[in-house]
Amino acid sequence: MSKTAGDLGTGRASLGAVLDFAWTTGAFTATDAMAAASLTRSTTIDAIDSLVAADVLRELPNARAAGQYRAGRPARRFELPADLGMVAGLDAGDTHLTLRIADLGGRTVWHRRVTVDPAQTIAERQKAILEQLDTGCAERGIAAKPLLSICVGVAAPVSRDGQSPPHPEGFWERTNAGLVHLLADRAEVVEVKNDAQLAAAAEGALGAAVGSRDYIALLAGERLGAGVVVDGHLLHGAHGGVGEMFAFDFVRGVDSAFGLGPVIERRAREMLADGTADPAGRLAALAADELDPRRILALAAAGDDDALRIAAAVGEAFARMVGVLGSMFDPEQIIVCGAIAEGIEPVLEAARRSIAPYLHLPAPVLIPSRLGGDIVTQGAVSRALQNARHIALPALAERRLRDDPELAAAVERAEAG
């Protein structure tokens, strides 16, 4: 990331405390901020006045004008404007780019998904990402607001400095095409993270794992990837590789790190090819180009025998995966994420029936995510908002104060006094 929280400096501690409080509340008074930030009244008022003068906080009509005044001197009221700046979350997938831009209240102001060629070069991928970001920021006047924070999710391990290690076939380097450097001048803070880790962040902030300290968010579309949270901490690893699923290539009965979607489709095609599917059944009636995993899962949910056999076979393999993940990380729940989650219940039900031989610990609860196919951008926005709150917004305030000598001197006097 291009900035750290320490860049605000100890001389601006009161500003940081007031900003952090303002982020978590709506309209507030100096008394509210003073109590929450543990500051003296004079220091609180000086910090608020400095932030208002720097156009970081907005002063609202006082309590009398707002219709809340009863007696005595009406209190001044302030807020952190949600449109002070924007954040962006980008899912930079192998075949798609999905961008979500949100205000500081987390409300989406722009959202679009475009398809990209998985065979594109690094330069072509970089160009496509910049075009998507520029298009989003140019819409609806977003370009007039500072982009405080960007978080990008990629299908690759990512180190803490935003780099991906070499891949035997060059996939990770192509997927994470130097993005932390490419986007460095586009926002105050730029962060690149593994997409499954962002899925875990989304589940923890918005989904089934709210309040949970031990869970795994399993992206299970084209390839498997896991975001692992243990004791409330999202695990990372030396190269960002916690949750890489390549090991399943070597687990008997699983044999690959392909996602549940491709495995379901492959099983269906095998049954049709070897004649084990009912020739008069609903599965056999599907055309070759209709063997979509979600269509097959819908047949299973409707009770089709062939589709249920596919769900049972895939569920058995998934139970083995759960056995490995459960033994390694002891989660209380495993959440299947991505677009495949909407219809995955027949597979999960089969896995629940099959799990006992593969795990001595209590089995985790297996549940489908309710966040849909856009979970990575939701996690990226959640992470971008955290970075805006703790890093980018204090840095913006610091810069505006530094650029105005009179304001800077007033803050220094208040801090010293």
From TrEMBL:
Determine the domain of life of the protein's source: Bacteria
Entry coiled-coil feature ranges: none
Q: Which Pfam families match?
A: ROK (PF00480)
What family, per the record?
Answer: Belongs to the ROK (NagC/XylR) family.
User: What InterPro entries does the record tag this protein with?
Assistant: ATPase_NBD, ROK
What's the protein here called? ROK family protein
Q: Show the SUPFAM superfamilies listed in the entry.
A: Actin-like ATPase domain (SSF53067)
